[in-house]
């Protein structure tokens, strides 16, 4: 027996930890991150249905469909919880279209261009299916966008679950699935409470977000982060006290993990969204944002109250013309400041 | 292999070993090489799992190998996304574009403002996906079945151009040059392509129904008020505002590249207000979402104005000087008091009541400066030349009375649905804060959009909110970066081509100033634009549509007209010509000159022209001898063409973006890969067409024809003239010329040249231009500060190019008085298409610029992959309609089938449908069929200063798809509901 088999704890540990902060007050749901990622990583055969970077309208069924109720992760005592696999349709499908039939087969006006699901039928679900639907009653509807990717968790359940020891954390904290070792058992998919691991039916292996490590190694921020046109994202090492991720997560504590109760210690953090003022029954404006705080708590836990209060207080300072380091961070006049040392040009 | 100056990876990409050496990442990647003893209980004890020494990172090359390319070029998507102009890097491998990424090399105006990075949205970041997609045209196609049937035969370029050339010559011989109609070539195709199309139209004496006016990207209210609409600001101007009002716009969908300036201004303490009938995606960035009932913006803004005036929180000095509200109006006729009736002077010499002297005094025509104090209140008797006396009062007095009578917040609230308290508090904010508004083009798609804009502008004018940092409006601020001049030049810059344009301009200026010494340079520039408009064959689109495309049947229905008018659109149209408002050249071709050849370029009338599925298909197309498209993709309209000429798309040809104000950078597009199939750049296509026309004309023994100026032109000169005697052969030649012109006119920095653009990929503009655009913007560019417009008027007291020579809120044109629109007012959208319970609103879909990517699989996989109708979720439930159900939507004219998306974010009396290709609907009948597009009759008014037309602006637009009434029904119930 060789003496070189690592422990799960070793596979889960790293020297440093890269992290992403996503500001939900700046996210417009444009899907640029989705497009950026897809064009880079998931056009290969078997990956077409995957959106390692994705955005869904919240509240809503989410991406993959109803991922929040699929289990996985850990309970309060740290015990792994059973989870579920996702289907290709849950993961957004990969609609096929009938261009030839419509455009050049002499069927004009008789055939329309339409999507076909992987099931072979007209789709009843797909990526971003409930876009912009939201909740609430007119004139107080509300929604916000939830951009996601692998959380590269510090306590990654996918690593624990892998029967092949194929999943590990790199020294920079990025969690990857060794494509040579993976045999497609899919325990990781069930274990991940964020449903951010996908199955490639062609290679018969699991794949997921690699945090663009080939870019990161060259000092270039991941594509979803760098290409975000809304400038929602900051990137860097959590222990780098000069980085925005450190300042927003550790110092200002306004960036929070999604569903901390899953117990996986995610390394993607969210600045909770402000929302337009709500109307009262007479049609007057109230003083409160329309997004119920309970809804936000459902995503980010109780810490969201203080985080949002801090943001609103600091914004009030700016309204009064006073300086605010937090607002300057969230604005980031210099776009490069968002990415710590990962400001290399992607050439 | 590559041509640009970017440092890049050598051909073949990076080898892993090279990579490790180059990056020094060895330590990082090897971290898990030193593996340890298998701990008891480790998962890998599972049988058949890990049982040998393992290397945990060598596999990582699987992904590293994807991160390589053969070449990187500069790219962008001009002007598919007209406002964007975002600089990209385009990555190709083995001759195929693999991906693109924002270059993100823009700076900030100065460190106090956010910079312009990364600039580039999902449409740009996935653009390469359209290059080889199913809707792409790769070879010249000839229709072999019936029109629109979708049966094609591949033919050679020579045959294709021969057929088109013959059809054009047939048209020339049988009906004259104007029977060749180039239906609104769109800048989508690219800046070089549009120049090719415009030069072609001009050289062949063809006619071009104005694209910008036709689609309704023409803010009429801005033109009526300021005499121009080409003004704006850079996006960082939001940062200087204390209040930003977004209206008729959804920039989260349509302008993602500038959205961060809004969200960041919000963090900086700026208050953001969004006015929109639905809770659209941009509402997320707002402090307040004002859910106005569709089409009631004017009522809201006039309520705001009433509060401002009543509470005396307006800025009287600004109002006196910058607006016409101090000008005296006759109480008996409602017309201005004019010198022509006072002392036989000029008809457009108007008057103030001077508070210092108590006398009626001439309002200066050459400057906004006035020695005295213009009264804003009071009545005075004025003596006319015939000895009679009339009572006059400042327009402001009339305004105040109207506001108090009709527009108190309680009254406004009844109409727009916003609580009076909110109207009051909003008014106080506008009056006390630096306020910047952003008016989207939805305003110009509403029948009374001009009234909405005028009412907004009135509130801004009362409070002094333009011509200063952090204030203003935005609409098509387009620096003259070579494109505009080149379309008109007959010789290149180096052969004095620009100077040859200047000579007649100087003559025109001298003549105009001799006739009226108080004419401004800006007014001269507008007159020159109007002349160019005629030379290019640019015509008012509504005349073309009414006379040739069957719109008379839609636009003359009495029951759909504005009830405050007693005549139909057609009657106004006829009258406008009789009154001499529009000359022959602007209304052609006349009804007796049927179009013979209709050419489309990046233009999709079946989507874009309202109800074109009935009108164009049934009335216009049958008249045509040839319908031809120069297209990158098979649009719904291209499907009806006899010939489709395949055009190269971005990354397949050299080009340069235009700058559209918000983003002050112009960027280069290089040819990164060969065009698909036999596609060619438009410049080459038109160049070839000119040669072919020469050849065929010679064969027919044809010598010459008359162009739009009436000058005789020889067929044998066409190619020589098109290419400036061989100077402009390729797209790259043209881009090089753009850069030279832009440098010469100060739009690009002094000394900047094409080589520098190749190196840097983009350039920040240093000027707006010396022609019309520069005057319209009315401020100099400071590259180290945000740009804003109209400063020359406010600080330097330059007159506005309007009839009253001030920002004009009182328009005493006979038709405006007749319609009750002399002052801004609120009117309901006429019952166009019938009265039904839901109000339609529309706009661009999120994942496509117009519908260019709407039928592209990559982009369709970002949503339901098909058109949807957003319907309020409660209303859907009440009607028994499920989310995802197909329903029938209809009005009196047409119907469509569409999938419902039941959404909380839509009001209960609204439906929202964005733009789609008609062929994405059953029977290819999209909702566009219901739109009618009735233009606003009184926009036909002319002979009155700014009420005129120049290319891209003025005259009526067939653009009234917002606020129309429609109904929906379950498909099962459809049979029982007859359409009247």
Describe the structure.
The complex is a heterodimer of chains A (347) and B (980). The relative contact order of chain A is 0.18. Chain A has one domain: Alpha-Beta Plaits. Chain A is α+β, with helices and mostly antiparallel strands. Helix content of chain A is 22%, strand content 15%. Chain A has a four-stranded mixed beta sheet with strand order 10-1-12-11. Chain A has a two-stranded antiparallel ribbon with strand order 2-5. A two-stranded antiparallel ribbon of chain A has the order 3-4. Chain A contains eleven helices and 14 strands. Chain B has 980 residues and is an alpha/beta fold. Among the domains of chain B are: 16-130, no CATH class; 838-931 and 949-974, Barwin-like endoglucanases, CATH 2.40.40. Chain B is 31% helix and 14% strand. In chain B, the strands form nine sheets. Chain B has a six-stranded mixed beta sheet with strand order 5-4-20-19-18-6, with helices on one face. Chain B has a six-stranded mixed β-barrel with strand order 26-30-27-29-28-31. In chain B, strands 10-9-8-16 form a four-stranded parallel beta sheet. In chain B, strand 28 (886-890) and strand 29 (895-903) form a beta hairpin. In chain B, helix 8 crosses helix 17 (449-462). Chain B starts with 15 loop residues before the first helix and ends in a 6-residue tail after the last helix. Classes of the chains: A alpha+beta (347), B alpha/beta (980).
């Amino acid at each position: 027996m060789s003496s070189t088999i690592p422990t799960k704890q070793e596979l889960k540990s790293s020297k440093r930890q890269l992290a992403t902060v996503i500001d939900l007050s700046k996210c417009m749901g444009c899907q640029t991150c989705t497009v950026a990622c897809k064009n880079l990583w998931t056009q290969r055969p078997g990956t077409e249905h995957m959106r390692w970077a994705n955005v869904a309208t919240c509240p809503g069924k989410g991406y993959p469909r109803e991922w929040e109720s699929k289990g996985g992760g850990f309970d309060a005592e740290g015990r792994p919880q059973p989870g579920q696999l996702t289907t290709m349709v849950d993961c957004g499908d990969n609609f096929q279209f009938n261009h030839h039939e419509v455009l050049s087969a002499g069927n004009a006006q008789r055939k329309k261009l339409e999507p076909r699901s992987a099931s072979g039928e007209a789709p009843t679900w797909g990526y971003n299916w409930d876009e912009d639907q939201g909740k609430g009653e007119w004139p107080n509807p509300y929604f916000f966008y939830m951009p996601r990717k692998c959380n590269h968790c510090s306590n990654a359940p996918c690593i624990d679950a892998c029967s092949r020891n194929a999943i590990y954390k790199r020294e920079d904290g990025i969690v990857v699935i060794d494509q040579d070792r993976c045999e497609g058992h899919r325990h990781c998919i069930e274990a991940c409470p964020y449903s951010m691991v996908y199955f490639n039916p062609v290679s018969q292996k699991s794949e997921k977000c690699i945090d663009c490590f080939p870019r990161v190694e060259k000092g270039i921020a991941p594509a979803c982060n760098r290409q975000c046109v809304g400038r929602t994202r900051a990137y860097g090492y959590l222990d780098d006290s000069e980085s925005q991720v450190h300042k927003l997560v550790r110092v200002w504590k306004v960036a929070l993990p999604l569903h901390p109760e899953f117990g996986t210690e995610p390394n993607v953090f969210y600045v909770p969204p402000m929302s337009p003022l709500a109307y009262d029954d007479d049609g007057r404006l109230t003083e409160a944002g329309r997004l119920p705080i309970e809804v936000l708590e459902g995503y980010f836990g109780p810490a969201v109250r203080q985080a949002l209060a801090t943001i609103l207080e600091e914004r009030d300072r700016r309204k009064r013309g006073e300086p605010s380091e937090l607002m300057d961070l969230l604005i980031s006049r210099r776009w490069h400041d968002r990415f710590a040392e990962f400001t290399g040009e992607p050439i | 292999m590559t041509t640009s100056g970017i440092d890049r990876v050598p051909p073949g990409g990076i080898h892993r070993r090279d990579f490790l050496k180059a990056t020094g990442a060895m330590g990082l990647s090897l971290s898990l090489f030193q593996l340890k003893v298998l701990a008891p209980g480790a998962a890998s004890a599972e049988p058949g799992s890990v049982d040998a020494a393992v290397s945990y990172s060598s596999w990582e090359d699987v992904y590293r190998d994807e991160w390589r390319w053969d070449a990187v070029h500069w790219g962008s998507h001009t002007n598919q996304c007209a406002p964007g102009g975002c600089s990209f890097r385009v990555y190709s491998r083995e001759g195929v574009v693999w991906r693109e990424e924002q270059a993100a090399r823009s700076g900030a105006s100065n460190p106090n403002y956010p910079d312009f990075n990364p600039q580039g949205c999902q449409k740009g970041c996935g653009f390469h996906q359209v290059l080889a997609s199913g809707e792409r045209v790769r070879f010249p196609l000839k229709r072999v079945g019936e029109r629109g049937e979708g049966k094609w035969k591949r033919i050679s370029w020579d045959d294709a151009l021969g057929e088109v050339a013959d059809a054009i010559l047939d048209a020339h011989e049988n009906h004259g040059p104007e029977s060749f109609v180039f239906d609104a070539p769109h800048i989508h195709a690219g800046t070089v392509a549009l120049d090719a199309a415009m030069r072609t139209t001009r050289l062949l004496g063809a006619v071009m129904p104005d694209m910008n006016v036709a689609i309704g990207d023409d803010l009429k209210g801005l033109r009526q008020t300021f005499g121009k609409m080409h003004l704006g600001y850079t996006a960082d101007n939001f940062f200087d505002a204390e209040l930003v009002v977004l209206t008729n716009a959804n920039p989260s969908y349509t302008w993602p590249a500038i959205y961060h300036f809004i969200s960041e201004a919000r963090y900086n303490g700026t208050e953001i207000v969004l006015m929109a009938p639905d809770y659209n995606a941009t509402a997320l960035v707002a402090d307040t979402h004002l859910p106005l009932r569709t089409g009631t913006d004017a009522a809201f803004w006039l309520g705001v104005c009433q509060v401002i005036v009543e509470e005396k929180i307006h800025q009287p000095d600004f109002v006196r000087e910058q607006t016409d509200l101090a000008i005296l109006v006759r109480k008996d006729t409602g017309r201005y008091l004019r010198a022509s009736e006072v002392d036989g002077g000029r008809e457009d010499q108007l008057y103030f009541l001077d508070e210092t002297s108590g006398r009626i005094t001439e309002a200066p025509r050459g400057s906004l400066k006035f020695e005295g104090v213009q009264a804003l209140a009071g009545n005075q008797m004025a003596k006319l030349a015939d000895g009679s006396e009339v009572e006059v009062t400042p327009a402001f007095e009339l305004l105040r009375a109207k506001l108090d009578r009709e527009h108190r917040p309680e009254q406004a609230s009844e109409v727009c649905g916003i609580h009076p308290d909110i109207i009051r508090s909003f008014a106080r904010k506008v009056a006390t804060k630096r306020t910047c508004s952003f008016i989207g083009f939805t305003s110009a798609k509403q029948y009374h959009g001009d009234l909405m804009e005028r009412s907004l502008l009135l509130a801004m004018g009362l409070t002094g909110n333009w011509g200063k940092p952090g204030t203003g409006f935005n609409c098509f601020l387009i620096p003259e970066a070579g494109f505009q001049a080149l379309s008109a030049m007959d010789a290149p810059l180096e052969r004095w081509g620009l100077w040859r344009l200047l000579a007649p301009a100087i003559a025109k200026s001298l003549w105009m100033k001799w006739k009226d010494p108080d004419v401004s340079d800006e007014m001269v520039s507008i007159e020159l634009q109007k002349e160019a408009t005629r030379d290019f064959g640019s015509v008012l689109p509504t005349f073309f549509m009414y006379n040739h495309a069957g719109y008379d049947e839609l636009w003359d229905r009495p029951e759909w007209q504005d009830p405050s008018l007693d005549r139909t659109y057609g009657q106004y149209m006829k009258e406008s010509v009789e009154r001499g408002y529009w000359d022959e050249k602007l209304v052609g071709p006349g009804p007796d000159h049927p179009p013979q050849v209709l050419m489309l370029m990046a233009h999709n009338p079946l989507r874009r022209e309202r109800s074109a599925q009935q009108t164009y298909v049934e009335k216009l197309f049958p008249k045509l001898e040839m319908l031809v498209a120069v297209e990158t993709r098979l649009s719904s309209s291209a499907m009806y063409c006899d010939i489709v000429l395949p055009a190269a798309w971005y990354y397949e040809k050299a080009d340069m973006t235009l700058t559209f104000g918000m983003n002050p950078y112009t960027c280069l597009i290089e040819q990164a890969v060969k065009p698909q199939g036999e596609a060619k750049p438009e410049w080459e296509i038109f160049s070839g067409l000119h040669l072919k026309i020469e050849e065929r004309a010679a064969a027919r023994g044809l010598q010459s024809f008359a162009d739009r100026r009436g000058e005789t032109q020889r067929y044998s000169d066409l190619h020589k003239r098109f290419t400036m005697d061989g100077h402009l052969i390729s797209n790259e030649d043209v881009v090089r010329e753009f850069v030279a012109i832009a440098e010469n006119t100060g739009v690009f920095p002094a000394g900047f040249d094409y080589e520098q653009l190749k190196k840097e990929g983009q350039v920040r503009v240093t000027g707006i231009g010396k022609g019309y655009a520069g005057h319209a913007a009315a401020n100099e560019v400071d590259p180290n500060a945000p740009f804003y417009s109209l400063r020359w008027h406010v600080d330097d007291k330059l007159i506005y190019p309007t009839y009253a020579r001030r920002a004009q809120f009182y328009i005493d044109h006979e038709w405006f008085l007749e319609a009750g629109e002399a002052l801004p007012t609120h009117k309901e959208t006429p019952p166009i298409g019938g009265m039904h319970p839901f109000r339609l609103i529309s706009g661009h879909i999120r994942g496509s610029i117009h519908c260019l990517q709407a039928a592209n699989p990559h982009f369709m996989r970002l949503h339901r992959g098909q058109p949807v109708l957003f319907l309020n979720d409660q209303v859907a439930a009440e009607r028994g309609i499920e989310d995802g159900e197909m329903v029938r939507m209809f009005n009196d004219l047409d119907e469509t089938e569409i999938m419902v998306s039941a959404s909380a974010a839509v009001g209960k009396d609204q439906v929202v449908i964005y733009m789609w290709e008609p062929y994405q609907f059953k029977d290819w009948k999209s909702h566009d069929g219901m739109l009618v597009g009735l233009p606003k009759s009184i926009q036909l008014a002319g002979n009155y200063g700014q009420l005129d037309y120049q290319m891209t602006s003025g005259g009526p637009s067939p653009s009234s798809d917002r606020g129309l009434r429609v109904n929906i029904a379950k498909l099962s119930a459809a049979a029982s509901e007859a359409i009247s």
